[in-house]
Amino acid sequence: METAATTKNGEGRAAAPRTAGHGAEPVIRARRLSLTFETRDGPVHALKDVDLDISRGEFVSFIGPSGCGKTTFLRVVAGLEQPTGGEILVNGMTPDEARRARAYGYVFQAPGLLPWRTIAGNVRLPLEIMGFEKGEQERRIAEVLDLVDLSGFGRKYPWQLSGGMQQRASIARALSFDAGILLMDEPFGALDEIVRDHLNEQLIALWKKTDKTILFVTHSIPEAVYLSTRIVVMSPRPGRVIEVIENTLPEERPLDIRDTPEFLAIAHKVREGLRKGHAYD
Amino acid sequence: MNRILPILTVVLAILALWYIAAIWLNAQWVLDQAERAGHSVGLWEIIEKTMSQDRPKLPAPHQVIAELWHATLGMKLTSKRSLFFHSWVTLAPTLLGFLIGTVTGLLLAVGIVHNRAMDMSVMPWAIASQTVPILAIAPMVIVVLNSVGITGLIPKALISAYLCFFPVVVGMVKGLRSPDRILIDLMKTYNASRWQVFWKLRLPASMPYFFTSLKVGAAAALIGTIVAELPTGAIRGLGARLLSGSYYGQTIQIWAALFMAAILAAALVGVIGLVQNRVLKRMGFVR
To answer: In chain A, what residues touch B183 (CB-CB under 8 Å)?
Structure first.
């Protein structure tokens, strides 16, 4: 299921060349990637023969029922799980090397903010660990908090913020050290519909402003279609890629694009893909 | 007021029960005395005489309070009978033992969390150490240390630390392991060193557990010191007061010393509680 690097029509995208030409090194490259967990009930094939290329500046969603390996794929990219077969390269390095080079920011399903640190203190955490200078820390904190619309909340403690704001703070934290890749594991899964819409809109704006490659795990079809340039449909047991769908929606995506026939057509394609996956059961 | 009323009710109930028990337990002595003297006593007279015996089986509350008052504020601090004096003799090794026990417990907990071999090996020993009756070990420790020339504060403090380190180990192992899986993963994505994970995540996350362990540890340290004073023929300290009280049937003295020990433990736990509230509030744990 190899996919060539996507080319986007660069409307309204003055910033850095986001489109990697053919032959350019992809940011993430997986070949026959497999991961089998040994459990008491026998082996579980979380990932099986996954082939995937993701180029710089793409927004790729991973969708599929639970147990399809989408989170596992993200964790393998992050070097949090070791694959048992195949090959994966992140920025041309192994995931562990990429992790050591701090190539990515990871946003988990829960905000995971430290309750004893303020919002600014939480954003500072990776900067402290990575040894940024004091002044540089402050500058970056102000910058990323502004990026997620949380300026003025730096001195608040996590519990003083709503769930949506907490998740935005955790996104700011992942952006603070300016990694090129953002790995997001169902970051809005625990939030209500309205907050989620709002955050989706903000995330698109943020993605356009920055130059990130985003890998986004979700199990919401509208979210996947609304956000991404490509949608990877996966199926469980064994976790494999069923289909990779190019998103042909225009760059400019107001929320009501979700009512257009084009949007519904892509959503339909995704749903069909998911159904195909279920035929394996 | 909402808090005082239930507390007051319980205190009154305890006092009432205590008085009833004192009358019931001490009445036999009044009856025996009357029989020996050859005259009979009425109910009212029995009750009256159970309240003011020199060596009652169970002293009445007001007798214990009077003795407490007399032995603390009612005499010079330097007096050999002052409970303040004996309290300090017990408190000093308790504090030292508490310090030694807490530091030992902390170090062991850090080792257990970070080292697999220690994880497998230390905990069973720590648990085994607490199953050995301290009352049996205390005299041996004192005798052994005495023979190498260590006397006074240190032996008592060591026995106190022996009881104190255990709750700290158990609490801190739990506390240092309390951060969520995703927080550990998060630190890993930052490529944080173990040292950084410890200082920035594990240690702050363990603070609520730390203070709870300290409270249990402080109470245990006090018990440790008193136990160390009991079988070793100490002549000073709350333990010594308990012991000499039981030698000479001075039940009022025993109860006064018991109450003093309880007040001391409550004060220690209370101080730790105050520090806990301030620290956790500053850290943003308390909402």
So the answer is: 112, 114
